[in-house]
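Limitations
The structure tokens in this dataset are predictions for the assembled complex, not deposited experimental models. Users should treat interface geometry with appropriate caution, especially where small molecules or nucleic acid strands are included. An illustrative entry is reproduced here so readers can see what is and is not provided.
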Amino acid sequence: MDLIFCHLYPDLLNLYGDRGNLMILAHRARWRGITARIEARGLGDPLAAGAYDLYFIGGGEDRQQRLAADDLRAGKAAALREAASAGAVVLAVCGGYQLLGHYYRPSEGEDLPGVGLLDLVTEHPGPAAKRLIGNIVIRSPHLGGATLVGFENHGGRTRLGPRASALGHVVVGFGNNGEDRTEGAVEGTVYGTYLHGPLLPKNPRFADHLIETALRRRYGPATLVPLDDALETQAHEAAIVRSGGR
Amino acid sequence: MSESAVRLSAAIGAGRLAAALARALRLGGGTTMPGRVARFLEPAITVRLAARLPHGSVIVTGTNGKTTTSRLISHIFGQAGLVAVHNRAGANLAAGVAAALAQHADLRGRMRGDAGVFEVDEAALPVVHSSVRPRELVLTNLFRDQLDRYGEIDLIAARWRSALRGADASLAVVFNADDPLVAEVGATHPGPRVPFGIDDDSCGLGTVEHAADARYCYRCGIPYDYRTVYFGHMGVYRCPRCGTARPVPAVRATGVVQRGIEGTTFHLESPWGAAGIQTALPGIYNIHNVLAAAACTLQRGIPVEVVARGVATFAPAFGRAERVRVNGSEAILLLAKNPAGFNEVLRTMLRADGGPVALIAINDLTADGRDISWLWDVDFEMLAGRVRRVVVSGIRAEDMALRLKYAGVDPSALEVRKDLAAAFDAARAASGAGPLYVLPTYTAMLQLRAALQRRGVVRGFWDD
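Predicted assembly:
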């Protein structure tokens, strides 16, 4: 078995250690004897719809995010939509998560249209509003009620439409908007979240869920053999304690 | 005395008393609280005292290298017979600068010191700059660091531009030509500009590192072409579209010879003369620090021989490649606080030692940055198969251990010890007669210093 992962805009959208997520997916696939390859697709690169099993898009600074959004809409959105409807996994974090919605409305200036892969909109409430920053713990019904831990840092407030379900509900932290206790969004095999940087290292269960979902498209239902996750579990538990969640 | 003179006198007295109390009660150096007290009594204390320094002031700011560069400048001033008024590492906001000035003033507001040398937090620059009105502003570099505190490096650059818009025309801006974003900010200054940089392709890495931040042309948004990359996004760059290129450095290093942890030698060239430079400070990043200090002091008129002597006799600052002896063997402290800096520290360690033993201590307190995501931007992969043993410690020890696992470090070479003193002892035991490399974040460094101080191994850093 083999998996090909697509890292979208690794040069532009690489804030907060986002690349760690792909390292985890590739290592954890290889440790199961699955060949895993990561390919980068940047500004102006063509994107073929069926070429990848999983697409990852990270967060960036405002300027970089605008560049990526323009390129995504102009050259890659159609292929990404087609891939997602065929069962490929899309994982988007922080700024990338916002780009998958209908639009991002900054506190000043024009709306930044997204690709509409997730039924959500994001608005920045204004320069005086405080950023939502800190350790975060959520509980996800998509993972049998397991906890996910991470760090969030965003000014935009995201609200989900009826087609998207939350990735989880907030135990500690702010989540999508700091008000409705939802965090992230899931629609089919498309996942978005504000848990940035090392989302997957400390959440190996979510990493394996994504690998299984990616395998299903080409190989049918797959169950991964368990790994020694002692260090992962320790780091997960320590993050919950550090967040004040226990 | 006039009312305003009384207020100044009271502020100085209260600030100095607060500092003395903090020291006597061992409240941790007392580096900022006295400044807050003094500024409460006289908000204009910094403006008034800085204006009385006969040789004016220098401000040093940037993500990395502030402490080393400002200490170097103070030391060179000392060699030139000038007494520097200098704030301490970790006291680099407005209150820390006010505290340093109050500490060097008598109760009538007369300064015991010739020139101010202030390292200033990159985000606090506009406020401190407008009250100190320095003669030179030294801009070292801009890396992503503590993003949860400051937002993004473009935002910091915008604050620097705004500080420069209000600057005196006579201000000399000394800036790093090898950092595209810093060079762009420096170029906006209409007054004297002194770019510095490395002119030696043998220092290049060959590729742009993952930790690179400002690789995109500020105007066009497209990637720069790099002829050479020194580390991170430092190098010799040019925008293929608009032609914006690295400015020609006025003060430059050629013929660089890196001798690992032993330091570096290079040839210094400048409009004010040339000299052979020898420094105990290791790593490419320290060449930039030395160039920054040399550029600042040379353009002030300090002779190049005095500058070279100052650099040669300078001992590393607190935790910046500081070497301490513990029970007959050596520990080398290398502060690691962001991806580009960490990569340089790792490379320096690996150049010096075939199979080093390292202690890595990661905290996530405010001064470290509460978000430790950046550990995944550091190229720890270079340690795989090349370290004898790594002990990880600190509040985020588990995160660090996990990062090393995915970097391919052999689990049998890895040990997690949350308690810093115990981790130090375990690492010391593993390093035997060889040196131990200690790579902590800022607050982990302070905690380790305190632990070693209790054992009588090192002095308190505020006593330096």
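Some entries come with short summary sentences. For this one: The radius of gyration of chain B is 22 Å.
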